[in-house]
Amino acid sequence: MEIKDLVPDYNLDYLGLHDLGYVYWNASTPELYEHAIRRYEGQIAHLGPLVVNMGQHTGRAAKDKYIVDEPGTTDDVWWGDVNVKYPEEKFNRLFKRMAAYMRGKTVFVQDCYAGADEQYRESVRVITEYAWHNLFARNIFIQQPREREVIKNFVPDFTVVHCPNFNADPEEDSTHENTFECCPEWRVG
């Protein structure tokens, strides 16, 4: 299958991600291993596992998890200490800056599924700035069949954008620190 066959018709325009560097669509496990090694993201240990240094962020940002407060979902969320409201306007500004940060950068995209039962399955698009993060997504989600029609017609129900090198401005963005996890309602269907 040619590389152009791995690119869905529904590309990254819906997110406002433009002028990116090279976009690796639906790279295979061996390809992601190669990218991770070439880009000095990690090394291969004895018997083949990829070993990476996670840097300063070794876990989830427990105090910096937010859910965007949107009209379509505000009544469905149990707001409190864990599910912290984040204003939609602030998220839009923050995401716009993150999209600007990504311009010119190489990104990796995996289109996959969450949920083994097709009746309840959700389609998930994972966009990362590191090959090894994309490899992680390949391991935790169900891979779509490598058939041209399936790939070309993929539309995500949910999108994850992972940019660990982008920092929020706590004063401007009302975040606890410069790291954050934000969940907007980006459902397409």
Short description:
It is built from five helices and ten strands; from the N terminus they run E-H-E-E-E-E-H-E-E-H-E-H-E-H-E. With 189 residues, the chain is an alpha/beta fold.
Task: Please report the total strand number as a whole number.
Answer: 10
Query: What is the CATH homologous superfamily assignment?
Result: Phosphoenolpyruvate Carboxykinase, domain 1
Largest sheet: 5 strands, mixed
Q: What order do the helices and strands follow?
A: EHEEEEHEEHEHEHE
Helix content: 10-25%
Overall mean confidence score, pLDDT: 86
Structure commentary:
This protein has 189 residues and is of the alpha/beta class. The chain has a single domain (3-183), classed as Phosphoenolpyruvate Carboxykinase, domain 1. The chain contains 5 helices and 10 strands. Strands 1, 6, 7, 8 and 9 form a 5-stranded mixed β-sheet that branches. The longest helix has 15 residues, at 88-102. It is globular. The relative contact order is 0.22. The mean pLDDT is 86.
